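Q: Given only this backbone (193 positions), what sequence would you predict?
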């Protein structure tokens, strides 16, 4: 095995430093994580569910976290990742409205929407949040890039990362939501069984 070059070492020091700067502990972040835990536990106790949505990498995060919330934290969660559903609703309502249509079909008052968008500007996610509000759902947002992004202003709980790097933003979003799961469970290490 060859040693890493000084240039690569410098790149990785900066890269890891940026991530740690954003996901590191802070009272504000801990408050958001605690509020999200409380909201989702309350949703479960009332017999409601959460819906997690996103596009691209954020959709993959939503799908992964939906399984972990349901399996490990016992929070009923659905995610709209089925290709037939996406293409049907996008064909019928337009891509910018497909999430809103899916939320109107599946959401009910008292449910919670977790909306993930790195840029905070995805029209379909923003329209999905509007549909959730019409129904009477609580909303948690996760965004990045600019502080003025529209998604950041729409939630009851709003996570935001001051970065324009997709990998940093998406990793932070996933890590934060995983910390909510582990806070619900009450431990950071547990068997997959």
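A: Predicted residues:
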């Amino acid at each position: 095995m060859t040693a890493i070059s000084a240039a690569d070492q410098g790149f990785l020091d900066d890269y890891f430093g940026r991530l740690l700067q954003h996901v590191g502990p802070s009272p504000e972040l801990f408050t958001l994580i605690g509020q999200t835990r409380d909201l989702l536990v309350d949703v479960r106790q009332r017999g409601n569910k959460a819906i997690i949505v996103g596009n691209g990498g954020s959709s993959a995060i939503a799908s992964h976290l939906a399984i972990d919330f349901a399996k490990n934290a016992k929070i009923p969660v659905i995610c709209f990742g089925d290709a037939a559903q996406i293409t049907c609703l996008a064909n019928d309502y337009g891509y910018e409205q497909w999430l809103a249509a899916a939320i109107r079909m599946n959401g009910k008052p008292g449910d919670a929407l977790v909306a993930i968008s790195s840029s905070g500007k995805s029209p379909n996610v923003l329209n999905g949040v509007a549909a959730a509000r019409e129904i009477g759902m609580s909303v948690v947002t996760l965004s990045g890039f600019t502080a003025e992004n529209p998604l950041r202003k729409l939630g009851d709980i709003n996570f935001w990362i001051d970065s324009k790097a997709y990998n940093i933003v998406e990793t932070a979003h996933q890590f934060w939501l995983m910390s909510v799961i582990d806070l619900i469970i009450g431990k950071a290490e547990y068997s997959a069984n």
